Amino acid sequence: MAVKSDSSVQSCDFVLFGTLGDLARRKLLPAMYQLDKAGLLHADTRILGIARKGMPQEEYVAAVKEALSTFLKEPLDEGTWTDFQQRLTFYSTDFTDPAGYAGLKEVLNPNSVMVNYFATPPSIYGDIGRCLQENDLIQPNTRVVLEKPIGHDLASSQVINDQVAAYFEESQIYRIDHYLGKETVQNLVALRFANSLFASKWDNRTIDHVQITVAEEVGIEGRWGYFDKAGQMRDMIQNHLLQVLCLVAMDPPVNLNADSIRDEKVKVLKSLRPINQDNVFENTVRGQYTGGFLKGNTVPGYLDEEGANLDSDTETFVAMRVDIDNWRWAGVPFYLRSGKRMPTKHSEIVVHFKNPPHNLYRDHYRQLPANKLTIRLQPHEGVEIQMMNKVPGLDSSTRLQTTKLDLSFSDTFKNERIADAYERLLLECMLGNQALFVRRDEVEQAWTWCDSIINAWENSNEPPKSYPAGSWGPVASVALITRDNRAWEE
Ligand SMILES: NC(=O)C1=CN([C@@H]2O[C@H](COP(=O)(O)OP(=O)(O)OC[C@H]3O[C@@H](n4cnc5c(N)ncnc54)[C@H](OP(=O)(O)O)[C@@H]3O)[C@@H](O)[C@H]2O)C=CC1
Ligand SMILES: O=C1O[C@H](COP(=O)(O)O)[C@@H](O)[C@H](O)[C@H]1O
Question: Which of the residues 115, 307, 332, 473 could staple to 224 if both were Cys, CB 3.0 to 4.6 A apart?
Answer without folding.
Answer: 307
